[in-house]
């Protein structure tokens, strides 16, 4: 049995598991590593001049304690599941992750990071320098990953949907733009992995995110997804002033409805 302390905590706008990209290079936002003890500021002083660092961290936001020898992968591979040690599944014998991230700035209270796949509140165990000549082997074979389908979709937004997403982000903190980037870039209509369905009445696809839903269309010839609009999942009765508010977000939905009248979506 080993006991570890944390050197810091991640501060990020990405708060929910569905906002986490498959790897940091796919992230659209940066983050900040806040030291848990002022002593770590001196421990990081000589990172000056390193473009990247390794973060060793904990999947402390996992909702499940168990793990399996086979893990389902999020990419279009030859099969759905592979042995867990051949994946980067968060459900492991020991819930530890590693990420190579860009180091933008060394600050007195922490490190300013570039694109990062760690969620807000992630506990960081250690920081190590990224050394290109010993940490990078681009010609190495990667097993089943060498055979995956790399097909991806461009994510675009209608002007109306972009304004709606901006309103939700600035007033509720939920980044639906990043959610769409993470969830729709690969296999956007995969119902086995996402809360997605086809809406016959709207003649477009719908993907759900907490108490919101995004309506999107596909241009298969151009490999393009367009988010057309956003709506709420609450009914009119559920938005009544005296209705229970389990997720504490109904005030936001009421303001959203006033600004963006939608009709049947509410």
Task: Name the descriptors.
alpha+beta; 6-stranded antiparallel β-barrel; 13 strands
Structural class by SSE content: alpha+beta
Contiguous runs where pLDDT drops below 50 for at least 5 residues: none
Biggest sheet details: 6 strands, antiparallel, barrel
Gap from first CA to last CA:
52 Å
Counting DSSP H or I runs of 4 or more residues, the number of helices is 5
CA-based gyration radius? 21 Å
Helices and strands, in order, run as EEHEEEEEEHEHHEEEEH
Backbone shape: globular
Residue-averaged pLDDT: 87
User: Which percent range describes the beta-strand content?
Assistant: 25-35%
Give the spatial strand order of the biggest sheet: 1-2-7-6-3-8
- Relative helix content: 10-25%
Counted beta strands = 13
What can you see in these coordinates?
- It is built from five helices and 13 strands.
- The chain has a six-stranded antiparallel barrel. The chain has a five-stranded mixed β-sheet with strand order 9-13-12-11-10. A two-stranded antiparallel ribbon has the order 4-5.
- A hairpin with a 4-residue loop joins strand 12 (212-219) and strand 13.
- 16% of the residues lie in helices and 29% in strands.
- The chain has 266 residues and is an alpha+beta fold.
